[in-house]
């Protein structure tokens, strides 16, 4: 592999790593498995870089690799969560394409509206989202931190996701078909 290809790969990975992690996290609930699939995606992409068609979006190519790895992971499991059904993964991919079409140079620029929507949530919902998605606590841990029942935390997450989905639709980050029932 020549120096230009290595440099190109480094730049493309840097530009797309946040997006790829978001995609994998939407499908996998275990951070260690997310990390494994992310690493395996990058290794596979590196090995197959010569096969990458530069006329097509690199982000979609990466997600295609991750998609196959996610399906392979769940095919080895006895129980496949609903958010990893083929139709759900296709829906996630379609939403990713919509986000990619937004203005901004980075994934963070393109998803800035999400942060704004999170900041508009009532404090207990915002804190629950922060603890669950950013700090990656399980619902049992959040319940202990917030001195609430596990069921109350699950309900807060459900309501917060519904509020976020509505805000994101209003701000046209996601399509009208977004469901708030995610994980």
Question: How would you characterize the overall build of this protein?
Answer:
This protein is an all-alpha fold and 183 residues long. It is 69% helix and 0% strand. It contains nine helices and no strands. The protein has helices at 3-25, 31-47, 58-75, 86-100, 107-110, 112-120, 123-134, 139-146, 150-170. Mean pLDDT is 82; it is low at 177-183.
Low-confidence stretches: 177-183
Count of alpha and pi helical runs: 9
Structural class: mainly alpha
Order of helices and strands: HHHHHHHHH
What is the helix content? 55-70%
Tell me, rounded to a whole number, the average pLDDT: 82
Instruction: Tell me the number of strands.
Output: 0
Q: Report the principal-axis shape.
A: globular
Computed Rg: 17 Å
Straight-line distance between termini: 40 Å
């Amino acid at each position: 592999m020549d120096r230009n290809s290595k440099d190109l790969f480094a730049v493309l990975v840097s530009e797309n790593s946040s997006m790829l992690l978001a995609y994998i996290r939407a499908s996998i609930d275990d951070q260690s498995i997310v990390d494994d699939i992310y690493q395996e995606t990058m290794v596979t992409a590196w090995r197959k870089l010569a096969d990458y068609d530069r006329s097509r979006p690199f982000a979609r190519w990466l997600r295609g690799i991750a998609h196959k790895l996610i399906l392979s992971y769940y095919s080895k499991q006895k129980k496949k969560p609903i958010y990893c059904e083929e139709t759900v993964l296709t829906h996630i991919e379609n939403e990713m394409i919509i986000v990619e079409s937004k203005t901004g140079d980075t994934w963070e620029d393109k998803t800035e509206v999400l942060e704004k929507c999170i900041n508009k949530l009532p404090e207990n919902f915002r804190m629950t989202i922060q603890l669950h998605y950013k700090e990656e606590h399980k619902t049992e841990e959040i319940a202990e931190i917030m001195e609430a029942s596990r069921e109350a935390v699950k309900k807060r997450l459900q309501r917060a996701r519904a509020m976020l989905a509505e805000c994101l639709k209003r701000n046209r980050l996601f399509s009208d078909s977004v469901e708030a029932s995610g994980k």
